[in-house]
Amino acid sequence: MNTAPTTPSGGFAGKLYQAEAWLDRKGRFAWIAAMILGFVIFWPLGLALLAYMIWSKRMFSHSCNRDDRRARWAAKMDARFGPEGRGRHGYASGSSGNAAFDTYKADALRRLEEEQEAFEAFIQRLRDAKDKAQFDSFMEDRARANREGTPAVKDIPDAEGRGGAY
Predict the structure, then answer these.
(1) Would you tell me how many other CB atoms lie within 10 Å of the CB of residue 152?
(2) 44-62 residue pLDDT tens
(3) What 3-state DSSP class applies to 93?
(4) What's the CA angle centered on 124, arms 122 and 129, to 5 degrees?
(5) Which residues lie closer than 8 Å to 102 by C-beta, 6 or more apart?
(6) What is the pLDDT of residues 55-96, one digit of tens each?
(7) How far is CA 165 from CA 37, 123, 140, 142, 156, in A?
(8) What are the two backbone dihedrals, phi and then psi, of residue 11, each rounded to the nearest 5 degrees?
(9) 12 near 21, Cβ under 8 Å?
(10) Can you name the residues that pair with 164 across neighbouring β-strands?
C-alpha cells in the first residue's frame, strides 16, 4: 500500500507544503510565531497567514495535529515499554527493571485493590441498611395507619372525582 503524500515535490508549491508540514510538527505556537514574523516583515504576509490559520482551523484547535502526536507518543512508549507494558491507566504498570521494587509495587497494588473492594462492600452494606431502615419505617407507618383506621396513603381525588392513591 502506498502511503506517500500527494503533495507536489518540487517548485514553490512543494516548498509551501514542506513549510506547512514543518510548522504542523512544531505546533500551534510555531504557526503564531510565523504569523507575527509575517506581520513584521510584510503585513499582507502576516494577514494571509492569519486567514489561512483561521480557514484551516489551526488557530482554534488544541494542536495542529493532535491525533498524529498521540500516535507518535504511543509508538514511542511501545518502543520503550512494549505493548504489554500498558496498564489500565497508561504505561505506569511497566517493569522498572528492579525486581524487588516490581514485587513491592505488585503487592501494594494488590493490597490497594483488596482495600478498595472491602470499602465498596462496606458502602454497599451501608446503602442496604439505609434502604432496609426506610422500608421498615414505611411498613411501620402503614401498620400503624391500619390499626388506627386511617389510610396509610392519602387519597387524592383524580380528575373525575374518584379517590386515587398517590
Answers:
(1) 14
(2) 888 888 888 778 766 665 5
(3) coil
(4) 95
(5) 95, 96
(6) 876 666 554 455 566 677 777 777 776 665 555 445 455 677
(7) 76, 34, 18, 13, 6
(8) 80, -170
(9) no
(10) 156
- Three-state SS at 39: helix
Q: What is the CA radius of gyration of the chain?
A: 34
Nearest to 23 by CA among 55, 59, 70: 59
C-alpha cell at 50: 492569519
For 98, the enclosing helix (H) or strand (E) is none
Q: For the full predicted model, state whether its pTM sits above 0.85.
A: no
Q: Residues 113-154: pLDDT tens digits?
A: 999 999 999 999 999 999 999 999 999 988 888 888 776 555
* All cell numbers assigned to 137: 419505617
Residue-wise over 40-60: b if at least 16 C-beta within 10 A, else e?
eeeeeebeebbeebeeeebbe
Cell triple for residue 26? Answer: 512544531
- Yes or no: say if 80 and 90 are a contact pair by the CB < 8 Å rule: no
Amino acid at 76: K
